[in-house]
Description:
four-stranded antiparallel β-sheet
Amino acid sequence: MPDSRRKPPVRRFSTEQGEYLVQDEVFLRDDGSKDKTVTTALTFRDFLSGRTVPLRLRRIPEQRATETVSAEERRLDSVFMKEALLLAREAFENNEVPVGAVVVKDGKVVSGARNRVMELPDPTAHAEVLAVRDAARALRTMRLTGCTLYTTLEPCYMCAGALVHSRVDRIVFGAADPRTGSCGSVFTIAGSPLVNHRFRDITGGVMAEECGRILQEFFESRRKDGS
């Protein structure tokens, strides 16, 4: 049951794409002790269009704390996100939507990929899907147990589904995606209690400004070119 004794404060959560108004609700156990905190997005304001969209009852996972992630893992999150950003920049230079992803196991990069939808051409060739495929081949297994997927943009519904099926341990993403994000921003596929895999942790907002900036640069350049 939500704690009805006090009204949860409303606060702002900004990404490069826009700004959320969010509210934290504390859930209690029957004995009155704290069970969990759920962050609910109330509205989203797009910086480019100026539109404000109501998002009531939608959960967003920015920097969601968990006791199952060590301090060392948290420290390395930005290190591996920088690797994903290098791949995103490579995608930019190849006229692909600049998203990069790496799969990490035991502190080492197993695979890395960038968007290659236009290049292949293949509508499923998102960075996350390609990184998962390469990791499965490298590790010779269809179950990526113990692996963390780092991606510069919150996975879409297709990629989130692939991460569920691959049994990735953690998901770490940079910029939230208010249009197709499926780790809580728009849909909750990764992290849903209805699917048959529980992620140890889903963390968003790691180097969000840098991850969002490269996307903004890309789409601004496309508008200037008239494409």
